Amino acid sequence: MKIAVLPGDGIGTEIVEQAVRVLNALDLKLEMETALVGGAAYDAHGHPLPEATLKLAKEADAVLFGAVGDWKYDKLDRPLRPEQAILGLRKNLGLFANFRPAICYEQLVGASSLKPELVAGLDILIIRELTGDIYFGQPRGRRVSPDGHFPGAEEAFDTMRYTRPEIERIARVAFEAARKRNKRVTSVDKANVLETFQLWKDVVTEIGKEYPDVELDHMYVDNAAMQLVKAPKKFDVVVTGNMFGDILSDAAAMLTGSIGMLPSASLNSSNQGLYEPSHGSAPDIAGKGVANPLATILSAAMMLRFSLNQAAAADRIEAAVQKVLAQGLRTPDIHSEGTTKVGTREMGDAVLKALG
Ligand code: NAI
Ligand code: MG
């Protein structure tokens, strides 16, 4: 089982280090190879996704990714920015299905931004389409506006786009996932104003007919945002496009206590996957040894389960994380009165110990 380890920038290196320690402690035959990505790769090789890194990722059974990005790269041309590395990996590996489970662990009910009764027992799964939508649609660019409210003014434009096959495959992923859970899918769109999402809604409805055992409903994205903070437990599986999924999953993160708790998996059609925390490189706390490594450690667990067929090992990691939380250990992002504040490495140590 070959794993490409791509720590990236900012807290990426600190949190991935802890996840690698946990993986090494499992006594599985894992072959891990590390490579530079993002700003770190740009600094060393002048490109955020060097050929060698892409090759390693393609040849691996799975990729464990930290995070990329820093304000200091904001002035670079877009193709050279660190964030292009993650878009490039998604595109090149065909990673179209992004799984973002939002689970509120019993021990963190009090850390949520919502009232305990709204999040106790929360377990929802947001499935975000990753290869289409406004992030990739052409044309895009800047020009002098030929028409509109201010003809002659400078304007920028991106194109929102989805094709039927892209929607079909992500819809199937969502219905299949719901079958293994509570058999409900909420498809989130903006069909009332966007043609892209009218197609989305039509196609999801059609695919839904193949899954009569799964209940399907549709919700506009603005209402979905409201429902997520009003009554999040009403959701089971939420499926949506690339941009809405990006935003809604960060909102869902806060329900669980901290974005530092939220793992993610991005899969292609052959179950090869990239696993990363849902958060970014957190430049504001990078290098301070205080980042929460649990999202990355839980991402490693998802990797074992989804891409490496090691469900028992994944269960062990998840149980260890819960045990550590039950012991009252918290990184600053989830620390509250009555709990013990620890740093990144101490949290890693505690998880290792809890693995037994
Ligand atoms: P961010 O997720 O890096 O940080 C948002 C806030 O959450 C910050 O206050 C940060 O300190 C905190 N935070 C994030 N992860 C944490 C952790 N593990 N433990 C404790 N606190 C944590 O998002 P932001 O600030 O919008 O972006 C920072 C950089 O990350 C940007 O360059 C952005 O482009 C990049 N980014 C990269 C992603 C990726 O690599 N997949 C995803 C999102 C953003
Ligand atoms: Mg995001």
UniProtKB/TrEMBL annotation:
EC number: 1.1.1.85
UniProt subcellular location: Cytoplasm
SUPFAM superfamilies in the cross-refs: Isocitrate/Isopropylmalate dehydrogenase-like
Site (Important for catalysis): 135, 190
Residues the record lists as binding substrate: 90, 100, 128, 222
Protein origin, superkingdom: Bacteria
Keywords: Amino-acid biosynthesis, Branched-chain amino acid biosynthesis, Cytoplasm, Leucine biosynthesis, Magnesium, Manganese, Metal-binding, NAD, Oxidoreductase
Binding site for Mg(2+): 222, 246, 250
Gene3D superfamilies: Isopropylmalate Dehydrogenase
InterPro entries attached to this UniProt entry: IsoCit/isopropylmalate_DH_CS, IsoPropMal-DH-like_dom, Isopropylmalate_DH
Keyword Chaperone: no
Keyword Oxidoreductase among record annotations: yes
Domain Isopropylmalate dehydrogenase-like: 2-351
Residues that hold NAD(+) according to the record: 280-292
Cofactor list: Mn(2+); Mg(2+)
Major enzyme class: oxidoreductase
PROSITE patterns (UniProt xref): IDH_IMDH (PS00470)
Pfam families: Iso_dh
Pathways involved: Amino-acid biosynthesis; L-leucine biosynthesis; L-leucine from 3-methyl-2-oxobutanoate: step 3/4
Note on cofactor: Binds 1 Mg(2+) or Mn(2+) ion per subunit.
Function noted in UniProt: Catalyzes the oxidation of 3-carboxy-2-hydroxy-4-methylpentanoate (3-isopropylmalate) to 3-carboxy-4-methyl-2-oxopentanoate. The product decarboxylates to 4-methyl-2 oxopentanoate.
Complexes and interactors: Homodimer.
Record-linked PANTHER family: 3-ISOPROPYLMALATE DEHYDROGENASE
NCBIfam families the UniProt entry points to: leuB (TIGR00169)
Record family assignment: Belongs to the isocitrate and isopropylmalate dehydrogenases family. LeuB type 1 subfamily.
Protein known as: 3-isopropylmalate dehydrogenase
Gene: leuB
